[in-house]
Prior knowledge:
Bound molecules: zinc ion
Number of strands: 10
Largest sheet: 7 strands, mixed
Shape: globular
Strand order of the largest sheet: 6-5-4-7-8-10-9
CATH superfamily: Vaccinia Virus protein VP39
Radius of gyration: 19 Å
Distance between the termini: 49 Å
Number of helices: 9
Structural class: alpha/beta
Number of domains: 1
Helix content: 25-40%
Amino acid sequence: xxxxxxxxxxxxxxxxxxxxxxxxxxxxxxxxxxxxxxxxxxxxxxxxxxxxxxxxxxxxxxxxxxxxxxxxxxxxxxxxxxxxxxxxxxxxxxxxxxxxxxxxxxxxxxxxxxxxxxxxxxxxxxxxxxxxxxxxxxxxxxxxxxxxxxxxxxxxxxxxxxxxxxxxxxxxxxxxxxxxxxxxxxxxxxxxxxxxxxxxxxxxxxxxxxxxxxxxxxxxxxxxxxxxxxxxxxxxxxxxxxxxxxxxxxxxxxxxxxxxxxxxxxxxxxxxxxxxx
Length: 277
Ligand SMILES: [Zn+2]
């Protein structure tokens, strides 16, 4: 039995969010109106919980399996960045929030851009720095950068882990230059398997994730924070890629677009812009 609470949706302000608790007692609230899964607020001493002690989780060997897959991750990063290339000036300054072991930073260097990464994991930051990359151990919602520093802010599978999501979105806008672009990718709550399996599809839910979005509710939250939503074209900027990458990128785009049509995508991308004036 789902319990209806008197909590209000962070996105659409619907009152009456529904409890969503799995067998392990991990807890989110679902909005019946916009389908945003959100963390809500719990009484002290509640038997349900959400969110891990994230900086201890990511300190351990979380990044070890990432390191093995670095070549493939760099390729995906190159395609994602290729899609942003049309918006970028020469030597663009980019910030990757949740940079992990730096796949995006490494690909940005190859494109002639000037990347910086932040991550809450010291292990991840050390991994980047030993290879000469510019990386800092910082929370994504409190950045030590001046207003208007970056042409592009990216985060790939990060926003669903951040408890203060509206603060984070506003902070990324602050550090973007006017006209600067935010690109992100996150799991999709309307993925057919998540809908079919619900609570049994544990990968989508807490403790790792404190939100699960769909394209509509996340677009709406970004707009509320003052961004303009741009069309997401996954593999724009193909001319900036090497010929073998172009073929790979075209195959990737075909695959993603087919999946999207049938809700087979586990995740979705969004591209948006801080207004120029
Ligand atoms: Zn809602």
